[in-house]
Amino acid sequence: MKAKVKKSEEFHLNKPLAHVAFIMDGNGRWAKQRLLPRHMGHREGCFRITDISNACQEFGIKAMSLYAFSTENWKRPKDEIDFLFSYIDEFFKREIDHMMRDGVRVLISGDISRLPEKSQATIAKAVEMTKNNDRFYFNICLNYGGRPEIVRAAKLFAQDVVDGKKTIDQLDEKGFTQYLYTAILPEVDLLIRTSGEQRTSNFLPWQLAYSEFVFTPTYWPDFTRAEFIKCLEEFETRQRRFGGLKNE
């Protein structure tokens, strides 16, 4: 049973929530329902990013991570991929001044070296411009895969061992997280996936170990502030035990 939505101006988080991650699914299906090209769903989805980012900041959430393009998404048609990256370029150019004003720091998870040069330059500029901001962390995952991230982190640690900076005995969970893309971010408290799919699709497998999951049938382009609040209200009903016992 879904919780009744409160008016947005009345909503306040009552449980700690520092980091929310989103699998922004359903853009193509949203466009198909409207007899539009698939890429138009991605374009509309970029506008939802702005709305949800603003809501996160208002509700006191410290960080958000967005699964924008996975390592598997290269299998999609080239024209769809080209449009997607052009919309990401537009997004940063449109929003960067607002990000600076609001103290937002842009972080990138994934290997962006395969992206178009124009997109690489746009993203690098956003990262550089916002590097000293710390009010809110905006982590966009591009050409990202969770397993490749863990392999990359293992190689980085191994290289530090070879270089004499670390010893094998120094490897523990806390230390290993410092080699992940998300090293400076708090743990993910909540994962939201739109469109009705109920899987994590190789997204942040290490970081999601103790996260709460909320799956909504709403397509990402229709994922409004009100829909986000529904997910947050569901999160607040959860009792997080982190391996301990339920409070009686």
Please provide a written account of the structure:
The protein has 248 residues and is of the alpha/beta class. The chain has a single domain, classed as Decaprenyl diphosphate synthase-like (Undecaprenyl pyrophosphate synthetase, 3-Layer(aba) Sandwich). The protein has seven helices and six strands, in the order βααβαβαβααββα. Strands 3-4-2-1-5-6 form a six-stranded parallel beta sheet, with helices on both faces. Strand 3, helix 4 and strand 4 form a beta-alpha-beta unit. The protein is globular, with a radius of gyration of 19 Å. The two termini are 23 Å apart. The N terminus is likely disordered.
In short:
By secondary structure, the chain is α/β, with parallel strands linked by helices. 41% of the residues lie in helices and 15% in strands.
What is the name of the CATH topology?
Undecaprenyl pyrophosphate synthetase
Strand ordering within the main sheet: 3-4-2-1-5-6
State the helicity in percent bands. 40-55%
Secondary structure tally, helices: 7
Sketch the topology as an H/E string, one letter per element. Answer: EHHEHEHEHHEEH
CATH class: Alpha Beta
Hey, roughly how much beta strand do the residues contain?
A: 5-15%
Uncertain ranges: 1-8
Distance between the termini: 23 Å
Characterize the main sheet.
6 strands, parallel
CATH architecture: 3-Layer(aba) Sandwich
Question: Quick check: average pLDDT?
Answer: 93
| CA-based gyration radius | 19 Å
Q: Report the count of strand segments.
A: 6
Structural class: alpha/beta
State the shape. Answer: globular
CATH homology group: Decaprenyl diphosphate synthase-like
Return the domain count.
Answer: 1
